[in-house]
Specification:
The chain is of the alpha/beta class. It is built from 12 helices and 13 strands.
C-alpha cells in the first residue's frame, strides 16, 4: 500500500503546492491514508521530557495546522505529531502564492504567515484525541497588540488537551516574531509562560518546548539555553526554516520566505550541536530541518537530539518515507553498536 500512496503523492506534485496539500488533508480525513500496521522496532523507542514515544520520528508542524489529521498521521507510522502553528484568532496568512517547491534542490520555500482557523476549532478537534503523543505548536497573531499574551492565551485554552506545547518564536513569516529570541524578550516571554503554567491545574501539566531559528547570532545559543533552563522548559526544537540562501538550482530560489528541506540539513544540525554543548543536560533537544533519510535522522541524534521531526521531504518522497527513515535509522544504530537511540545521543 505504501507504494500506491507514494505514487499518489507523485501525482499530487502536478498540482499547485498549496492545493496539493489541501487535497492531501481531505484524503486523509476520508480514511485514505497509509497505515503502518506493524510494531515499531524497539531500538527506536524514546523518552523525551517524560513523553514515551513508540519511535523517535515525529511529524513537524505546518502539515496539520488545524489539528485535522493527527490520528491518520500517527497511524501512518509517526511516533508523535505536532499540530499548528495555531494563533488565538483565525487569520488568513499572507497572499498566495506563498508555497513553492524547489524540486531540483529537494527544498521548499514558504511564506504562509501562520494561516489557521484559530484556537476554538483546534481545541475542539484536539479534545477528541484518544491515543498517541500529539503536541500543540502555538503562536501569535500578526496584528496582536500583545504577542506574548497570545502565547499565554494559547497555553491556557489548550491546557489538558495536548501532550506537549511548543512555543514558536522562530517563523520568519510574521514580521518581528524572531525578535522574541533576543535575551530580554525571551526572558519576558518565557517568564510569563512559566507564570501561567504554574497557575494552571497540576493534573494538566505537560512539557513545554521552545522552537528556534537556525539563523542565530554569536552568543544567542548560550543565552537562549540559559533562559530556557531558568524557566524550566523541557526541550528546544532545532530548528525552524532559514532565511539564508545557500547555492540553489531551482527557478523559484529567490522567493521570499523560509527555506526548508535538504539545504537546511547542514546548518540546522550544526546549530543543534551547539545547543547540545550549551544545554549541559539541562533540557532535551529535538532535531528538525532537512531530514530525508535514516542517515539524516541518525546525524541529528549524534548531534544531540533525542527525537527528530520531518515534513518537507514528504513532499518529494511521499508517505512511505516515514517507514524508510525508521528502518534505516534502526540499521544505522545497530551498525554502530548502539542498543537504543538514547545511547547514540551526542555520540559524535
Amino acid at each position: 500500500m505504501s507504494l500506491l500512496h507514494d505514487l499518489a503523492a507523485g501525482a499530487l506534485r502536478g498540482l499547485d503546492p498549496e492545493d496539493a496539500h489541501g487535497l492531501t488533508l481531505r484524503l486523509l480525513q476520508a480514511g485514505l491514508g497509509p497505515r503502518d500496521s506493524g510494531p515499531d522496532d524497539p531500538i527506536l523507542s524514546a523518552t523525551v521530557a517524560g513523553l514515551k514515544l513508540p519511535n523517535c520520528v515525529g511529524l513537524a508542524p505546518g502539515f496539520d495546522k488545524n489539528a485535522e489529521v493527527f490520528a491518520p498521521m500517527l497511524a501512518a507510522g509517526f511516533g508523535f505529531v505536532e499540530c499548528g502553528t495555531v494563533t488565538p484568532l483565525p487569520q488568513a496568512g499572507n497572499p498566495r502564492p506563498r508555497l513553492f517547491r524547489l524540486t531540483e534542490d529537494r527544498a521548499v520555500i514558504n511564506r504562509m504567515g501562520f494561516n489557521n482557523e484559530g484556537l476554538e476549532p483546534f481545541a475542539a478537534r484536539l479534545s477528541r484525541r484518544r491515543a498517541g503523543v500529539v503536541g500543540a505548536n502555538i503562536g501569535a497573531n500578526k496584528e496582536s497588540a500583545d504577542r506574548i499574551g497570545d502565547y499565554v492565551v494559547g497555553l491556557k485554552r489548550l491546557w489538558g488537551l495536548a501532550s506537549y506545547f511548543t512555543i514558536n518564536i522562530s517563523s520568519p513569516n510574521t514580521p518581528g516574531l524572531r525578535a522574541l529570541q533576543t535575551r530580554a524578550a525571551l526572558e519576558e516571554l518565557l517568564g510569563r509562560i512559566a507564570e501561567a503554567r504554574d497557575a494552571l491545574p497540576a493534573e494538566g501539566r505537560v512539557p513545554i518546548f521552545l522552537k528556534v531559528a537556525p539563523d542565530l547570532e554569536a552568543g544567542e545559543v548560550e543565552a537562549i539555553s540559559d533562559v530556557v533552563a531558568a524557566n524550566d522548559l523541557q526541550a528546544v526544537i532545532v530548528s525552524n526554516t532559514t532565511i539564508t540562501r545557500p547555492a540553489l538550482k531551482s527557478a523559484r530560489a529567490g522567493e521570499a520566505g523560509g527555506l526548508s528541506g535538504a539545504p537546511l540539513l547542514s546548518l540546522s544540525t550544526r546549530v543543534l550541536g551547539e545547543f547540545h554543548a550549551a544545554s549541559d543536560g539541562r533540557f532535551a533537544l529535538i532535531g528538525a530541518g532537512g531530514i530525508a533519510s535514516g542517515a539524516d535522522a541518525y546525524a541529528k541524534i549524534r548531534a544531540g537530539a533525542c527525537a527528530v521531526q520531518l515534513y518537507s521531504a514528504l513532499v518529494f518522497q511521499g508517505p512511505g518515507l516515514v517507514g524508510r527513515v525508521k528502518r534505516d535509522l534502526a540499521a544505522c544504530l545497530r551498525a554502530e553498536g548502539f542498543a537504543s537511540t538514547a545511547e547514540a545521543i551526542g555520540a559524535r
